[in-house]
Each structure stands twice: as structure tokens, then as C-alpha cells.
């Protein structure tokens, strides 16, 4: 069970990653539905359904392009998402993926 198997700090990191991944997935699904031929008038990195944006260089797929220093890249991407969405300010701030002993590449 997730409640008993890991400590609260690790659970917070896992849930933060799941939230970030889901946000990126929703955005990608919406992009696929909004064909360029139809022209929505919305920026490509903005979710109409949920009202958030993910900067182009902060997406999940951009994080996956890096093979080293993933924790640093992930922290940078999460900060970019927070900066682009004032309503999400501080939601990822407690997640420190730079600790290589705890989260190796």
C-alpha cells in the first residue's frame, strides 16, 4: 500500500510528479484535439479545459530529453510551470529532486 510503504516526503515527490505528468498529458491531448487547421486562437501551451499553461521548454517530454542531471532539469521545469501559473505558486516548491543520494539519475 502507498500509505505504509513509503515515507511522507517520498510520497509528496511521487504525487508532485504525477500531477506534473497529468498536466502535461492533458495539454498534449488538447493539442491533438485542436488541429492547426481549425485555429483556436489560444497559445499552444495553454489548456482550455483546466486553465493552466506549461511553457514549451518545461514540458514532460522536454524533461525526458535529458539523460543527465534529471533532478536539476525537473526542478527547473516545475519552477517554470509555477512561474507561468500564479494559481499554482508554491505547489511544487517543496520538491527537491536535486538530492542525488535520494534521487539518482
Low-confidence stretches: none
Number of strands: 0
For the largest beta-sheet, the strand count, sense and barrel status come to:
none
Order of helical and strand elements: HHHH
Shape verdict: globular
Percentage of residues in strands:
under 5%
Instruction: Let me know the average pLDDT.
Output: 80
The helical percent reads 40-55%
Gyration radius from CA atoms, angstroms:
15 Å
C-alpha end-to-end distance = 25 Å
Q: From the helix content, strand content and strand pairing, which structural class follows?
A: mainly alpha
In DSSP terms (H or I, runs of 4 or more residues), the helix count works out at 4
**How many structural domains in the coordinates?**
1
Amino acid at each position: 500500500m502507498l500509505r505504509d510503504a513509503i515515507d511522507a516526503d517520498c510520497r509528496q515527490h511521487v504525487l508532485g510528479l504525477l500531477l506534473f505528468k497529468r498536466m502535461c498529458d492533458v495539454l498534449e491531448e488538447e493539442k491533438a484535439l485542436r488541429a492547426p487547421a481549425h485555429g483556436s486562437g489560444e497559445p499552444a501551451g495553454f489548456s482550455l479545459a483546466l486553465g493552466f499553461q506549461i511553457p514549451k521548454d518545461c514540458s514532460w517530454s522536454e524533461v525526458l530529453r535529458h539523460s543527465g542531471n534529471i533532478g536539476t532539469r525537473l526542478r527547473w521545469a516545475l519552477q517554470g510551470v509555477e512561474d507561468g501559473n500564479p494559481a499554482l505558486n508554491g505547489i511544487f516548491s517543496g520538491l527537491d529532486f536535486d538530492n542525488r543520494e535520494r534521487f539518482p539519475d
